Amino acid sequence: MKYSRFLFVLVVISCLGAVSAVAAQEYTVTSGYDSPVPAGADARVPVPVPFWSLPLWLMLAQLVLVPPEILVAIKLWAYMGIRRVSGGNVLDQDVRARIYGYICQNPGIHLRGLSTEMQVKLGTLRYHLSVLQHTHKIAVSGDNASIRFYENSGTYSTEEQQILKHLRNETTKKILGVLLDRPMVTRQDIADAVGVSGPSVSWHMKRLEEDHIVLSRREGRLTAYEIPGPVAGYLNQQIRPPAPTGPQDYSRAIGQA
What we know:
This protein is mainly alpha-helical. The protein has 3 domains: 2-26 and 46-80, no CATH class; 90-156, Arc Repressor Mutant, subunit A (Orthogonal Bundle); 163-239, Orthogonal Bundle (Arc Repressor Mutant, subunit A). 55% of the residues lie in helices and 10% in strands. The chain has a 3-stranded antiparallel β-sheet. It has a 3-stranded antiparallel β-sheet with strand order 4-6-5. Strand 5 (215-219) and strand 6 form a beta hairpin. Helix 1 (2-23) crosses helix 2 (56-64). The longest helix is centred in the N-terminal third of the chain and has 22 residues, at 2-23.
């Protein structure tokens, strides 16, 4: 860092010195268009000279006489040590690291949920989420109406992402808990157990069926619901913590309760 600053200052001083030395000399410039052609000489049209064909002192003068805003940008680069964001340093930024950690702890969370719970402005959040996505730190799923964020690196399969998304809704989570305890229950059974209306249960069940988390079966005039075996196994892991297996685990479970 100190070396970059020293090198920048040295180059500027050298360029200024070269320009000052050249400016102290006297030059006479005559336009080729205004001067008469000498006798016996052929008339020639002046040819533009490329920048790289100019004398060294003139090139240095051109480099020094750049717009002030460019000099300011170079100065900021030298003093701040701006570097490209990559997978190796993407989490060096504090806010970005907090956002990534929160997504890891709350898989399936959506944009406004992140903004509200973390108290981060949407514009700032979108920028950091974009950086995390482009550096492959997070996975994104869903449509424009409901984009969800997850830890990347193959942490969750597509099916697991769908399940985690629904578990973010407390009412849906309660409904799934009822179905785990009582397979093949009806809409009214679920409504009574969760404490919501029948139409509300229908709305949740429709979304769960669309994502293949719940299956429905018609029994006479009633429809009963159940959770497929593979989905039920993963739901059990997410909804119910593992039972204590020893004194230390039991003490930890009591402390968390």
